[in-house]
Amino acid sequence: MLDLRQLKTFVEVTKTKSLTLAGKNLNLTQPAISLQIKKLEERLDARLIVRRDRKFELTELGHVLYPVALGMLNLCNKAQHDIEQKKSEKISSVSIASSMFFAEHYLPEILKNFRQKFPKIQIRCFTGLTEAVEERVDEFECDVAFVAQTSNPNLIKRVIAEDELVLIVSPVHELAKRQSVNLEEVLNWPLISFSDGSGTQSVIDSLFAQRAINFEKLMIFSSTESVKRAVEVDCGIAFFPRKAVQRELALKTLVAVPVSDEKISRVYSFVFRKDIPLSSAAKAFRQVVLNTYRE
Which of 15, 24, 65, 295 is deepest in the core (most CB within 10 A)? Predict the structure, then answer.
């Protein structure tokens, strides 16, 4: 049987790529870290980690073990948490991960409905890029998540909403007076992009790729608000979910220009793991989500 302490050490070295940092995080000496890795490799009769350019990297067999080890440790942590929670009769909780767009413009309504029905269930919410959000559920760190798109075979997906992507420009931009613009014309002006891992950017990239249109990403932002502010001061133009710019369009600080030859949209999905039963709190949350978007 595999030793959980050795697996924990292996995971920490993999994450930090350093024996020193792993030892600091685990409160162990560097020789103790090395010994744990050595014993694990002897137990499996396999080389798991090698040193390259002063950093530790996984071997092919190490890559096989890493997701399994991570899942085992997260399951153990979840089991300990659930048991301690039951023993001490703490308030039940649900952990949610959400892409930033969804968290800002859809999630508040869901949380309001959930709090009305289950006021004593604690809610913990993490927001980030779609890629990072999906990983939270896949690695057992969150119960459920809201993402733009996923092909992860470990997750069950329920499409719950769809939002049009519109081209937004400053009111002083020359496109603001146009009735429409075609997709290739868009690249005549600086197009602001979102960071890699963004669901919105993934839709935009796929659209241009399907049309065999190449474009350089000269301005890349991780903050949605930064993109809106940059467009407002006419630093560039950008594609944005319509729901996320309703206020600015109403105030006329931004203008939406129709793209004549494409209808661009992104869908939002509610996801959870297919191989792990949801807790009672997470099941209650799932039902509220499905009821909210059934209407």
Answer: 65
